[in-house]
Design a protein that fits this description.
Layout lengths: L5 E4 L3 E5 L9 E5 L2 E7 L2 E4 L6 E4 L3 H18 L6 E6 L2 E4 L2 E3 L18 E8 L2 H6 L8 E10 L5 E3 L1 H7 L4 H23 L4 E12 L6 E4 L7 E4 L13 H4 E6 L2 E6 L2 E2 L1 H8 L1
Antiparallel strand pairs: 1-2, 2-3, 3-8, 4-5, 4-6, 7-8, 9-13, 10-11, 10-13, 11-12, 13-14, 13-15, 15-18, 16-17
């Protein structure tokens, strides 16, 4: 596939338009070895909860593709619609072209105006990561019952409220309700699948859209891979679902106006893949 057919180059995969052969008109995902995370004391820390690509992990693309294939097939069995068609190589997947949830700029004549290119929905079983950093009055690892948030995608992800999505005309109230319901349904299936392996999903993120040649209904697009999930071991919920070992697991800090939170029991993507696959 030539570079000229490149549609999009992302943080974890490249997307190509297929112009010939049996999958003509479809998209080809090529999962790469690029990984996001942060630097701490001169060391590289890979973490899917971050948005900056800081390096590569050899073989990561093939593993991510295998992982995504497993979950797309599982979701299909459970009646969850997606854009997945087939997996054709160890790091390549065929999908239906889809239109992300987006909105054209209303007044392009004003400098600084920009369109909404697409949305990402995060769901959280427990309070950690950016959720705790934004709401530090909540105890770490509090049960959040799969609370769903929406983010505008770009060089940096920006939180947008559901009310703002409706008020701006980006989505109708009915579309928002359907999106939250779909995200929670997928989150429940994914969380249960991990629980069967004695692992707990802390949080995750999904993208929704509409098939380019479909009926207009929202479906899961993009991927379900180690890049979009944070997982831990040793989760011990109390009666209200809060983790009872959070004091031994969560480590927070506050310096120069910046909060951080880490989870000692968080499992690296490589480790939970080995357990899971």
């Amino acid at each position: 596939m030539e570079e000229k057919n490149l549609v999009y180059r992302g943080k974890s995969k490249d997307v190509f338009d297929i112009t010939e052969g049996p999958y003509r008109g479809k998209y080809r995902f090529v999962f790469t070895d690029k990984a996001t995370g942060y630097f701490e004391n001169g060391k590289t820390v890979f973490d899917p909860g971050y948005d900056t690509v800081i390096g590569t992990i050899p073989g990561k693309g093939a593993i991510a593709c295998r992982f995504a294939t497993h979950f797309f097939k599982l979701l299909k069995e459970r009646g969850i619609p997606s854009h997945y068609i087939d997996t054709i190589a160890e790091n390549e997947m065929i999908v239906e072209p889809a239109i992300p949830l987006s909105m054209q700029v209303e007044s392009p004549e004003f400098p600084g105006s920009a369109p909404l290119l697409n949305l990402e929905f995060t769901w959280r079983n427990n309070a950690t990561g950016s959720f705790w950093r934004r709401y530090p009055f909540v105890k770490p690892c509090k049960n959040l019952n799969k609370v769903v948030e929406a983010w505008t995608k770009g060089d940096s992800d920006i939180l947008i409220t559901m009310e703002a999505l409706e008020a701006t005309g980006a989505m109708s109230n009915e579309e928002i309700t359907r999106s939250v319901e779909l995200v929670k349904n997928i989150a429940e299936i994914v969380s249960h699948e991990f629980s069967l392996k004695n692992l707990h999903v802390i949080d995750g993120k999904f993208e929704l859209g509409r098939l380019k040649f479909g009926d207009g209904k929202m479906v899961l697009i993009d991927e379900i891979s180690p890049d979009v999930l944070r997982v831990c071991k040793g989760y011990s919920p109390g009666k209200n679902g809060d983790c009872t070992v959070y004091e031994q697991c969560a480590v927070t800090s506050f310096s120069e106006g910046k909060r951080t939170i880490k989870n000692k029991n968080q499992v690296s993507a490589a480790d939970f893949i080995n357990i899971f696959l």
